[in-house]
Amino acid sequence: MSLDLGPRPWTFLLDERPPAPGRLRLVQALVNTINLETGKDAIDTPPGLEAWLSEFELLPAGGSVLDSDVARARELREALRLLIRRNAEPAVDAGAAAGTVSRVAASGRLTVEFGPDGTARLRPLDPGVDGSLAAVAASAFEAMTNGTWTRLRACLRCHWASYDRSRNLSSRWCSMRYCGNRTKTRAYRQRRNGC
Q1: CA atoms within 13 A on the CB side of 107
Q2: Is residue 43 part of a domain?
Q3: Are 156 and 36 in contact (CB under 8 A)?
């Protein structure tokens, strides 16, 4: 799977840190297909979702994307965002989100594929968009089992997903330059004005 993305909306332009490792980067890239502050959504049309799936080599040759696929991809994206938010905000209710990701995994008919080298991974049997979206869910599952999932964090301000490489998992913002600075400046002004 080629992950050299070039200049795309999901290439972590706001993030000062390197992207998530391995297949977890796929989850991060899907979550970051929308900028919640501007509303710019890279997968809000069939051609947009097709471009994203093609970039990650998830869409089989000759595959097509429908409006219903866009709706399911966006639903998966927001479910994953909620699950990621729980990593730093344990009070976030992600029950429905977990159900959504489970439903996507089932729709893509995930199966375990064992390698001759003693490794195993989840692989979707569905050859269409359902399988493509299930591959994203499989990436989340693999990160949850290998211990990297809790390092994927949603910015407390804009909910952009970034990978926390700090020793004590203390990352709070997508970028100190953007959301961190804005949050600290607002807090300073409130203290200064006595609000």
Answers
A1: 20
A2: yes
A3: no
Partners of 163 in beta bridges: 152
Residue 7 forms part of a structural domain: no
Interval 61-73 mean pLDDT: 93
**Terminal alpha carbon distance of the chain:** 51
pTM, whole model, 2 decimals?
Answer: 0.82
What's the structural domain count of the chain? 1
CA distance 104 to 126: 11
Rg of the chain over Cα atoms, rounded to whole angstroms, equals: 17
Give the lowest-confidence range in 18-27, 86-95, 178-187.
178-187
The vertex-55 CA angle with 49 and 58, nearest 5°, equals 75
Q: Kindly report the CATH number assigned to the domain that includes residue 185.
A: 1.10.3300.10
